[in-house]
Amino acid sequence: MILVDSTVWIDLLRNRVSVPVGRLRKLLELGEGAAAPVIAQEVLQGAANPAAFAKLREYFTEIPLIGADRGIELHVAAADLYARARWRAITPRSPHDCLIAAIAIAEGVPLLHDDRDFEQLATVESRLKLVPRD
């Protein structure tokens, strides 16, 4: 199983061509692509209208979701990661990225992404395993 960040899901849904999207397509063929509740939220909140929202919601009910059962511990881990990054003069653009990284770490799965924040977070936390972007 590989956790896939919202940046890649959004590019897939927009039919963009990129290395991460190609990897996601392959993961979906193999049944190995996963999301997390926060990732579904990020994708859903960008829906253009109610019909698109409903379609996306249905889509994400069919994708394996990981990290949903861990509760507050993931948020504490995300806050810790965010703070440690700041202490090293790295300010993540989104606290959601820290939560997504914390989920990948807690679940022991690599993260497929197209977001430079994760590259920086991986320098702060060596347990964050990233799928190479190129």
Please, could you describe this protein's structure?
- It contains 7 helices and 3 strands; from the N terminus they run βααβααααβα.
- By secondary structure, it is mostly helical.
- The protein has one domain (2-124): 3-Layer(aba) Sandwich (Rossmann fold).
- The chain has a 3-stranded parallel sheet with strand order 2-1-3.
- Helix 1 (6-13) packs across helix 2 (19-30).
- The longest helix has 16 residues, at 72-87.
- The relative contact order is 0.19.
- The model has no long low-confidence stretch (mean pLDDT 95).
What is this entry, summarized?
This protein is mostly helical and about 130 residues long.
State the main characteristics.
134 residues, Rossmann fold, 7 helices, 3 strands, 58% helix, globular
